[in-house]
Specification:
Number of strands: 21
Distance between the termini: 39 Å
Strand content: 15-25%
Structural class: alpha+beta
Radius of gyration: 22 Å
Shape: globular
Low-confidence stretches: none
Helix content: 25-40%
Mean pLDDT: 93
Length: about 525
């Protein structure tokens, strides 16, 4: 595939390109100590930890190895390259769009760099050995140091997030500045399309290059087809690769002593199901949480240009509790609306839609993300695709509606002259009193729901009847296969999972012991 961009090569581009290992030939067998499927936060962190211990590590990545020069910041070019199914993957009932990335760096390539630890009360509720707040704290600290995680400086809070901050403060609600992992940021605002300025301190910029320095092999455009099993162990991964220069496909095997699945909460269970791993209680793929969200938009009298600067730098936590069965389970954060994304978000056709798009420079999108109790199931779909069976419970429908109402209150408190609620029958609210017109529960297809944080489809637990993986990260029934991604989480985190996914990779790679020797 030719580069998306016509920009000249830089030394950074050339340095990243050198990380790639040569694609093996048809029928080859490559032998390593540990084979890792997936190069996102969890896989990259595990590779980093294991390579530092002197183990020979290989990382398989189904997606491309995109260089800074490839990241054009054009939605039409980057969505097909950054996301599974071009960003069009949906739940089986078509009610929720599920965005998760592929490419070297996984979802850290396109995410907006939000870094929040899993709340201590949630980890205590899990009550899983090795996964309490005290056990995870050193791994969080290590990740935050490696990736230069720090709170956004007030000077970097853009105009749109400034309005959100004003609304939260005027209501007297809990909130604050967020932490990010970025260095050298120029505030282009196109973070979710990949950073053309290489300012993200993420898996592809930090951990994978450092693992490669210690001898780790990186194989992009290399899809793990199936795992080969013998008795209670994995012996090899069958891989299908495509050479980016010649376009020639090759099928080969990666043999190892130990294996780690880190393809994310959708792709990891699919690989295990394709491979026929032991699953007597049908737990592989079950327990999926999506952390789904929806948004409303405040219209202001002046231009705020929400697409400029750091997209998400302020949060509201007034409506987020981590007590079981809590009646406040919504995290509120600013949205990111690039032109095509905004056009898809705003409903209507023809003149009505054109009128809304004319408001684009004055719009502040605000999202409510549900700390969901609903559970789904990932399985193979027709024609080799994926089926994501996930339906919101009644309680979750009410919670999400409550969160959207809170978003409207924040925007009016911030000075919005109007709040647009993009339901099928468009709502345009003119004052706080109009909030009573908003839905009190969210029906399927009532508005556009998006999930960017799938997790929990291979959850940790002590009992094989109720969980897929043991506390040390190994799959129940297989001695040398572990998981190091968001699918391990027994519940939704209720916050962005990026930093916890990195900490999970370190925990599996060096903390628990099953894969550290």
């Amino acid at each position: 595939v030719p580069p998306t961009s016509e920009r000249p090569w830089t030394e950074t581009d050339r340095a990243y390109e050198k990380l790639r290992a040569p694609i093996p030939k048809e029928g080859d067998i490559v032998e390593v100590d540990v084979a890792i499927v997936g190069s996102g936060a969890g896989g990259a962190a595990a590779a980093w930890a294991l390579a530092r211990r002197g183990l020979k590590v290989a990382i398989l990545e189904a997606g491309e190895h995109l260089l800074p020069r490839d990241l054009s910041q054009r939605e039409d070019e980057m969505y097909p390259r950054l996301f599974y199914d071009g960003g069009g993957r949906r739940t089986a009932n078509r009610a929720i769009r599920v965005l998760h990335g592929h490419g070297v760096g996984g979802s850290t390539l396109h995410n907006i760099n939000l870094c929040k630890r899993a709340p201590d009360e949630l980890l205590r509720h899990w009550a899983i050995p090795c996964w309490g707040p005290e056990e995870l704290r050193p791994f969080y600290e290590q990740v935050e140091h490696l990736l230069d995680v720090r709170e956004i400086e007030l000077a970097w809070v853009n105009k749109a997030n400034g309005r959100i901050r004003d609304g939260v403060k005027r209501l007297g609600w809990k909130g604050g500045a967020l932490k990010h992992n970025r260095r050298g940021c120029v505030g282009s605002g196109f973070c979710e399309l990949g950073c053309a300025f290489d300012a993200k301190m993420n898996a592809s910029r930090v951990l994978i290059p450092e693992a490669a320095e210690k001898g780790a092999l990186l194989f992009p455009r290399s899809r793990a087809v199936t795992l080969e099993l013998l008795d209670d162990a994995v012996t090899a991964v069958r891989v299908r690769s495509r050479d980016p220069r010649s376009g020639v496909d090759a099928e080969w095997k990666l043999a190892a002593k130990k294996f780690i699945c880190a393809g994310g909460a959708v792709e990891s269970p699919l690989l295990l199901q394709r491979s026929g791993v032991p699953d007597p209680y049908g737990r592989v793929g079950r327990g999926l949480r999506l952390h789904p969200g929806a948004a409303v938009a405040g219209v202001f009298e002046d231009e705020v240009r929400a697409w400029q600067g750091i997209p998400q730098s302020w949060e509201c936590t007034e409506w987020l509790s981590f007590d079981p069965k809590a009646d406040r389970r919504v995290w509120i954060v600013g949205g990111s609306a690039h032109p095509a994304g905004a056009a898809g978000f705003l409903p209507g056709f023809g003149p009505e839609h054109a009128e809304l798009m004319a408001l684009y420079p004055r719009i502040v999108p605000l999202s409510a993300m549900l700390h969901d109790e609903s559970e789904g199931f990932v399985s193979a779909g027709l024609g080799g695709g994926v089926s994501i069976d996930y339906v919101l419970t009644e309680a979750d429908r009410v919670q999400l509606a409550t969160g959207l109402q809170a978003c409207a209150r924040i925007l009016f408190a911030a000075g919005a002259s109007e709040v647009i609620v993009p339901t099928r029958n468009l709502l345009r609210l003119k004052s706080v009193t109009d909030i009573g017109r908003m839905p009190t529960r969210i029906e399927d297809h009532e508005l556009d729901l998006v999930a960017v944080h799938p997790m929990g489809s291979l959850p940790l637990g002590l009992d094989a009847k109720t969980s897929a993986c043991r506390p040390d990260g190994r799959l129940h029934g297989l001695e040398n296969l572990g998981v190091a991604d968001t699918s391990l989480f027994p519940t939704s985190l209720g916050v962005p999972p990026q930093i916890t996914a990195y900490a999970t990779g370190l925990t599996i790679g060096e903390g628990v012991g099953a894969f550290s020797a």
